[in-house]
Write a structure and sequence with these properties.
five-stranded antiparallel β-sheet; TATA-Binding Protein; 208 residues; 26% strand; four-stranded antiparallel β-sheet
Length: 208
């Protein structure tokens, strides 16, 4: 993390704020500004802060440092973000830089785990996705967009499948996709972690 923070030291804060889609200014306490300047953004829908200088990620309510994995994720986001606009077009993990070799493993701990947890239960998947602030998207039999960071979105698609005496057996399936400009904001390894995190969140928060 030392190297990542060193990379950021030479960039003007307003530029970083624009590139990452975050806000930059003094934190507020009781409605009044206090302390030094910092970046403010959301991680999985929850507010987080990044100090400047220092680039330490904090919970803005408690002022406690975030976990090391969250620190690293945010530092990669700030060092990688180049301000490219999202396209609204989606690609698989295999289409991310270097992702093809690890795609099978990624599907194993994301899509396959969602099949185990939800199977063909579309209602449970939709209720759970909605409870986690997923935004419905018109693909597959059901799909939801989740916002991990201001300019990083993940799309989970569900296909119902089909089986019966007069049909070919197609089991239900799930897949996590990314915006085509995803690599402008995080390295591929980080998207593997985000995909795994989203999968665990959906399974842990299942709503029947």
């Amino acid at each position: 993390m030392v190297e990542l923070r060193a990379q950021l030291e030479g960039t003007e804060p307003p530029v970083l704020a624009a590139l990452t889609g975050s806000e930059y200014g003094k934190p507020t306490l009781g409605g009044r500004p206090h302390g030094s300047q910092e970046f403010r953004l959301h991680l999985w829908g929850k507010p987080v802060s990044m100090t400047y200088p220092g680039f330490i990620a904090l919970d803005p309510a408690t002022r406690q440092e975030l976990r090391p994995d969250q620190q690293t994720l945010l530092l990669y986001y700030f060092t990688t973000a180049d301000g490219a606009p999202e396209t609204g077009q989606w690609i698989s993990f295999a289409d991310l830089p270097g992702g093809r070799f690890y795609n099978q493993a990624f599907q194993g701990y994301t899509g396959h785990e969602l099949v185990k947890a939800f199977g063909p239960d579309r209602v449970a998947f939709e209720r759970t996705a909605t409870s986690l602030d997923g935004r419905p998207y018109p693909l597959g039999d059901a799909a939801f967009v989740f916002r991990a960071l201001p300019r990083v979105a993940l799309l989970v698609i569900f296909w119902q499948g089909d089986s019966g005496e007069d049909t070919i057996d197609f089991p239900p399936s799930y897949q996590i996709l990314f915006d085509t400009y995803a690599s402008h904001y995080l390295p591929t390894d980080a998207f593997a972690i985000l995909g795994s995190t989203l999968t665990r969140r959906l399974i842990a928060c299942r709503v029947d």
